[in-house]
Design a protein that fits this description.
Elements (H helix, E strand, L loop, with lengths): L1 H19 L24 E2 L2 H10 L3 E4 L21 E3 L4 E2 L10 H15 L7 E4 L5 H12 L5 E4 L2 H7 L5 E3 L10
Parallel strand pairs: 1-6, 2-4, 2-5, 5-6
Antiparallel strand pairs: 3-7
């Protein structure tokens, strides 16, 4: 029995340590956005669902959801009805889809800037919480970008709405913030 437990521990421990040791890259993540993320983001404060909920309850931080939104497929047959996939997010958050890619177009950067301005009311020291889903590099990239643009009170929620929902915190249906650049 002890030998079996020891063998199981030897198998599980390396896997657990790998998941916790994703290195923080020097630059943006450019691909494979749904993979384990680092435990840190230099310059940001990493928060879990409980910490994010405390910030949300205080009402002093702006929340920015950066989950990407798939574009409407090109060349749909005429008359095909297209419905965007619904998004449930943290109440009061603004949804800025597609701003978390490693490289973004100028029009997307302007969209992100406008969203940051909205939630901070032009104050780069105003707290912001940036999130997506669990193991989503989009939020890491977007938080890193906000830091590089001079925002100084950036919180990153790596568990995103997955972790938020796991704690049974409320969610609400959101739509993308106005001005979203069109990809088609």
């Amino acid at each position: 029995m002890i030998r079996g437990l020891l063998a199981a521990a030897l198998i599980v421990l390396p896997l657990a340590s790998w998941a916790q040791t994703v290195p923080e890259p020097a630059d943006y993540r450019m691909d494979h956005y749904r993979n384990p993320v680092p435990a840190t983001l230099a310059g940001a404060t990493v928060v879990g669902p409980e910490g994010a909920h405390a910030l949300w309850t205080e009402g002093k931080a702006g929340f920015i959801d950066v989950l990407p939104q798939p574009p409407k497929p090109a060349n749909l047959p005429e008359g095909t009805i297209w419905r965007d996939r619904p998004r449930s997010s943290i109440p009061g958050a603004i949804w800025l889809p597609n701003v978390g890619y490693g490289a973004i177009a100028d029009v997307t950067a302007e969209y992100f800037h406008a969203g940051l301005e909205k939630v901070t009311q032009g104050d780069a020291t105003h707290p912001i919480v940036i999130f997506c889903l669990e193991d989503c590099w989009m939020s890491w990239n977007a938080a890193k970008r906000a830091l590089e643009w001079g925002y100084t009170n950036v919180y990153w929620l790596p568990e995103g709405t997955d972790g938020w929902q796991l704690w049974d915190y409320p969610l609400e249906r959101v739509t993308p913030e106005d001005g979203q650049p069109q990809t088609n």
